[in-house]
Amino acid sequence: MIVDFFYVNSHVFYRLKQAGKAIGILQMKNVRDELTSRSEIFVRKDSGIDTIDQLKGQDIAYISPMGAGGYLAPRAYLISHGIDSGVELKEHFTKNLSSSIHAVLLNDTSAGTMCGVNFDLMNKKMDMGELKILAVSDPYPESIIAANPSLDAKTIARFTQAVIHMKGSPAGQRVLKNMQTLKIREFIPYDPAIEQLTERLLQQAKLTH
Question: Where does CATH 3.40.190.10 sit in the chain?
Answer without folding.
Answer: 5-34+142-204, 38-140
